[in-house]
Amino acid sequence: MKLSICIPVYNGADTIGQLVDKLQEIFSGRDFEVVMTNDGSRDNSSEVCQSIVKKYGNVRFVDLRRNYGEHNAVMCCLNYCTGDYAAIIDDDLQNPPEEILKLVEEAEKGYDVVYAKYHKKKHSLFRNLGSKINDILATWLIGKPKNLYLCSFKLINRALINEIIKYKGPFPYIDGLILRATNSYSSVFVEHKSREAGKSNYTLGKLIHLCLSMFVNFSIKPMRFMMGLGAFVIMLSIAMAVYFIIDKILHPEIESGWTSIVALILFFGGLQTVFLGLIGEYIGKNYLDQNGTPQFTVKNTYGIPVNEEQSK
């Protein structure tokens, strides 16, 4: 069995070298490779990764032209990995690399994907809250089983990798691609450490982008929700109209107020704006997809045979 360890790198110059060194120690004597993708880092991650390739013969490195996002970088890794299994791990050392062995042991029972789960996560309160929101939305939008925690640290087999990389759209969501291709999954508890260097790259903007990827690319439930909300508002409006008519007949001396009218106008105007924005998001993403927007563009590759690179 050959194992590929896929690492999306973003501003990880301080930690990526330590991570690869530990991987070489842990998996010494095994058939494995390390595949790194530099996702447009603003530090000297590219130079550090190039030096790692020179140091170890089983390391591959793909340098992207700009930042595309974590899921696009993972897709790049999966396109360039050659193992029977691929372990996806972040570059910040919060997931101890030796825990990959637990994922491999579980996957050998016949599962297509094995997710890591934690007794206690050492992330910030904001990131833990974002993960919780992502978990709730994934359960509703893409049918994620409630007992499954979606984690960026996971292991997938070659058959599932081949299904995932068939997706060529510009806005991949790895867990969505996994769950629509298989229901053979498992999870194991692993250790989670505090961040050793640098700061988290997890931001509100990235959380919103991830949610929109689920909304638009992997589910039509938001459209159905808006349609149901529109039907509810129509029925509520009819009920209110009937109430005001009856109230006016019974109490003709009461003057009609403009406050309720303004409130209703603002409410319906806001509802229509949200609905139109949602439609625009669907149309815009579809346009970018049909327009051939790439998942990623490669600047340079290192440690990858020329014949294999030409076949990409």
From TrEMBL:
The record's section on InterPro entries has: Glyco_trans_2-like, Glycosyltransferase_2, Nucleotide-diphossugar_trans
Looking at the UniProt entry, the stretches that span the membrane are 225-246, 258-279
Signal peptide bounds:
none
Sorted alphabetically, the Gene Ontology cellular component annotations on this record are: plasma membrane
Q: Which Gene3D superfamilies match?
A: Spore Coat Polysaccharide Biosynthesis Protein SpsA, Chain A
Q: Where is the Glycosyltransferase 2-like domain?
A: 4-131
Q: Which UniProt keywords apply?
A: Cell membrane, Glycosyltransferase, Lipopolysaccharide biosynthesis, Membrane, Transferase, Transmembrane, Transmembrane helix
Q: Does the keyword RNA-binding apply?
A: no
Highest taxon of the lineage = Bacteria
One GO molecular function term? Answer: undecaprenyl-phosphate 4-deoxy-4-formamido-L-arabinose transferase activity
The answer, when asked if Cell inner membrane is one of the entry's keywords, is: no
Name its GO BP terms in alphabetical order: lipopolysaccharide biosynthetic process
Q: Kindly provide the name given to this protein in its UniProt entry.
A: Glycosyl transferase family 2
Q: Which organism is it from?
A: Treponema saccharophilum DSM 2985
